[in-house]
Amino acid sequence: MAIQLNHQEVLTPPAPSATVMVLRDSPDGLEVLMVKRHSNSGVLGGVHVFPGGKLDALDCQTPPSQLEQSAEDLAASLYEESLELATGAGLYVAALRETFEECGLLLHRELPLHVLGELRQQVRAGLGFVAAMAQLGLPLQTSSLKPWARWITPRVPSVMNRRFDARFFVALAPVGQDALHDDHEVTETVWLTPEAGLRRYWSGELGLVPAQILSLSQLACYASAADVMNAASARPPFLIAPEPMELEGQRVMCYPGDPSHSVTRSLWTGPTRLIFQNNRFEPEGGLAALLG
């Protein structure tokens, strides 16, 4: 699908949000779950993304007794100076909640399937996610999530007129649960190897935006879900603040390590810039550059 380039400067602060790359192993290798945003959505309509969404005030009001880990430990794991403890814990809660709301997966170990059904029923009836979990006596298993990256939308976003401060997490797919789409926020759920996702993007079958393109490119370097989780545990999350520029009439998005980015150290092996051409974002070197 064709992406419409944005030229509007956004003066409001980026909204805190959480995104989860849910991973599993398959006969074809590492797979990641992607969902297709509803075409009528005001944010990235028709685009394939990882489950996620904005931080809600209620996420930050979760009682400590419901959290598997302390707010202090959760905030510290994000490696952000001046991050309020409630916000740090709330981002984990938002990640769990959005994964459940958008694709029906509860990141919870050893969960009886009848309990999952009861949770879905209570949430559909209007009870909030955290309240429904508490009513069923289920703690929020925050340890199922590992911080991966922090993406901060620039003041001139490329593909929307909103800014987000998105914390990307990785998580293992829960055993015995099926991903579902709600036909409200998302209209499709699909498991893809990172390579297949990038190839489908390149062939025009899949709409992707830069954060997803480069995240898939990073995941393509790993052989298994465990390898990704171990990598996330071994380092602080990447801080990725894209810096756009206009070059010969084209929008160029620069990332850490690019000669035109203020941060000179590369965070990953692969492209450090994407160019808006052919109605989409492409790296110098084409698909081969994304696949390494």
Task: Quickly describe the structure.
This protein is α+β, with helices and mostly antiparallel strands and 292 residues long. The chain contains eight helices and twelve strands.
What is this structure's SSE topology?
Blueprint: E1 15-26, E2 29-37, E3 48-49, E4 52-54, H1 71-77, H2 85-103, H3 113-124, H4 129-135, E5 145-152, E6 164-172, E7 186-192, H5 194-202, H6 210-219, H7 225-233, E8 238-240, E9 243-247, E10 250-254, E11 273-277, E12 280-283, H8 286-291
Parallel strand pairs: 1-6, 5-8
Antiparallel strand pairs: 1-2, 1-4, 2-3, 2-7, 5-6, 9-10, 10-11, 11-12
Helix pairs in contact: 1-2, 5-6
Verbal overview:
With 292 residues, the protein is of the alpha+beta class. The protein has a single domain (26-234), classed as Nucleoside Triphosphate Pyrophosphohydrolase. The chain contains eight helices and twelve strands. The protein has helices at 71-77, 85-103, 113-124, 129-135, 194-202, 210-219, 225-233, 286-291; strands at 15-26, 29-37, 48-49, 52-54, 145-152, 164-172, 186-192, 238-240, 243-247, 250-254, 273-277, 280-283. The strands form two sheets. Strands 1, 2, 3, 4, 5, 6, 7 and 8 form an eight-stranded mixed sheet that branches. Strands 9-10-11-12 form a four-stranded antiparallel sheet. A hairpin with a 2-residue loop joins strand 1 (15-26) and strand 2. Helix 1 (71-77) packs across helix 2. The radius of gyration is 18 Å and the shape is globular.
